[in-house]
Each structure stands twice: as structure tokens, then as C-alpha cells.
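Trying the structure run again after the queue cleared.
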Amino acid sequence: MKRIISQVTKELAQFRRDRLTLALAFLLPFATLLIFGFAIRLEAKDIPLVVQDFDRSYYSQTYIQRLFVTNQFTPIAWNDRQPIAQALDEGLAKAIVIIPHEFSRDIKGGKVGEIQVLVDGTDANNARVIKNSIKAFTNSFAQTQGLLPENPPIAARSRLWFNPGRQESLYIVPGVYAVVLWIFPSLLSAIAMVREKEKGTILQVYASSLSATELILGKSFAYLLIALMMGFCVMGAGALIFHLRFAGDPTPYLLTTPVYLWTAVMFGLLLGARSSNQNSAVQGVSIIGFLTSFLLSGFIYPLSNIPFPLSLLPNIVAARYYIDVTRDAFVRGTGWSSVWIDLLMIILLGAFYLHVTRKAMSRMQLNT
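Done. C-alpha cells:
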């Protein structure tokens, strides 16, 4: 135990002397939190829209005014002498609404007033959002104008659960925690491990009769302490800037976070033990660590949308389980009943990384 504590002290001393590593540990995670927290938006807003009104009646003018009052669409001026579809072709608008001459006449005559909507389908997901938004607005407009029965046979009363204010930060920022606290602790530990190999100091460690297990545990505990400080800074900034508060019992989150950080450190040590230089270690963390935690964790895209057999990979991505814990802590507030399996999977992944890293280091020690 004394040798492990000595190894921890040595690692922390080396960390304090390296200003670049200090910046990597605290400035970059904070910058990443700001970029992801403010730049990633899943709800479509300020959609450029062109409206061509051939009817110019009370109904058509009221429809147009209320359409833009929603603040979801931005009006784009268009010369009626030019083909209206050219606005989509040139990318000036994402949708076009065309109101025909007989729009108000059909409404007054008890017929269906038809409106033509052209949507840019380049982005299928965005096109679906625009289509559904215009459809929902049109139904709401018809109801407010008394064009629908006051008491329809079926009426759905919807309510947003957990996040009634539709704050995107409640969904995005907890996911950012998982990505940031996976990438940077693993990057720091990977660089620290491979630096020992590049400078040849790993041979001195082996000559001191320090076992591979003691070396790994010493490094992992040292960088776990650094990762905890990093996590405290990132989460504190997230609470101040994005006003995140615990929705329920914080115990699962507080207990899972150190385990997750230790697993991230072990992942970095594994890549460092397998890499021959710092460039390959950084590339390994960037490709394997960042891409999987960003794309295969449910951070942005639902895991159910990932096709088979790629859908099997998220099962071994620790960020996937930690995101469930963070979103439960800050959004749902369910507690242990829904996240205990996530903590168990993170522990198993950390134990696996420790086992593989210990075997790699033991093999290296025997060869030297």
C-alpha cells in the first residue's frame, strides 16, 4: 500500500509541474462544456419560410401573421415574378407555403381550404419537424377560428413530463458531462502512461520491484483525484451557467461519478499501455473514446436508431450508462430503481480495463 501511495504522490507532482497538462485538464473541459452546451440544439428554430398568398383575404392574412408569431419560422421576402420553387433550389428557404386564390371562398362555402406546403427534404429529420409544425399550427388555427367543432369526439390533452419548460439544456448538458468526463481523464492517463515508455522511466519503475498492479493502481488513483477535481469544476460550471439542479435523490449520481471517472482513467491507461508514442495514444482516445461516447452513447441520437450489428457496440460503451445516470439525476429523479444496472455495468467495464491493462504491463515487465 505504501508503494501505491508513493506512486500516487509522484504522479501528482509530475502533473503539477506540467502546465500544458494542467490546461488540458481544466481549460479544455470547460471550453467543451460551453461549446456543446450552447451550440447543440435539437429543436428547430428560426426556420426560413417563404409564403405566397394568392388569396389576400382575412383568413389568409390572419393565417400568415399567426404563423410567424410562433417564432419558429422566419419570413423570407420573395419576388413573385420568380418561380417560387427557386427559393428551395437556392437554399434561401427551408419551406414554402402557398395559399391559393380560392382559400377563403372554400372556407366560407363549408369546403376544405387547402394550402400547399413545399419542404426541403435534404435533411430528413428537419423536414419532418417542419412538416409536423406547420400541420399542428394549421389545426390550431382552424380551431381558434371556429372552423372545427367545439366538442370533437376525441380530444388529446398532452402534458410534458419531467421537463415542462422544454429546456434543451436539461437534455444536452447532462450528456455533455458524460462525454467530457470520459474523454479528458482517459486522455490524461493515456499520455501519462505512454510518456513513461517514451522517456524510458518505465524501466526504472520495473527495477524498483514495483509490480504492474501497483503501478496501474498508483497511476489510476492519482488521475482519479485529478478527474474528480475536473468533474467538480465542470459540474459546478454547468450548475451556474445552465442552472442544473438535482431532480431527486443525488446519491446514485454521487456514487456513480467516481466509478465512472476511474473507468475512464483505466481506459486511458489501457490505450497508453498498448501505444508506442503519444500521438498514437491521443489518436486512440480521439477515435475510440470520443466517437463512441459521442455517437454510440445516446447523447444525441437514440440508441434504438442504430442499425444491427452496430447496435451491439453501445453495450460496451461506459458513457451510455453514465448518461442514463446523469439524466435521471437532473431530469427524471427516479433514483436507484432505474439506474442500479448502469452502475453495475460501469464497474464491470472498469474491472475489465484493469485486467487487460495489468496483463499488458505484466507482459512488458517480463520482456524487460
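The chain has two domains: 2-40+166-367, 47-144. Worth checking whether this holds up in the mutant runs.
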